[in-house]
Amino acid sequence: MRYLKLSEIANVQSGLVLNRKEAKDEGSIVCTYKRLNLRSIDGNGKVDTSSLDDYNSNEILDDQIITLKGDVIVRMFAPIYPVTITEETSGLVIPSQLSTIRIKDTAKVMPEYLRYYLSQNNVINKILAEEGWQSQRTIKISTIANLLIPLPTMENQMVIAKINRANEKRKKLYQELIQQEDAHINALIIKFIGGNSK
User: What is the chain's mean pLDDT, rounded?
Assistant: First the structure.
């Protein structure tokens, strides 16, 4: 198995310090974007588009701080919750609490495989150990950039991504079933109590 540093296969950089480009009043607004925040990065590798914020900028922002399809975005705090950017979640402003991993054109790495690898507990623990297990657990860009990434064949990366997608769907279905069962049980208990919940 070949290993490469993340910095050899991807460009890793932090997001925008928002107040640097933020329009201070209505007259200085040049562009309005949607932006990511810590709430919009969920633990299942997806962007929660319902919790995005508006961002008024005083200039057109550089592509480096805007999400592109295939980017992997990670939080700069533990847990890092890596997410993969899709067509639907491209064009979002990346704030400084997050960093972008943008795979180089020459690298034979699938974004979904990379996201899966970075979300593993042993990898997250390795990142935290590098940071000395600080109480705040803030993560430096250099720590992520220096991670050694195992590179299976593209065929195996595709298989890993497919297995992971199936597992995520199964987990989502289980969660929905549990919620439905909870609602059913609560309704049954209220019926036996003889009143309505308030």
Answer: 91
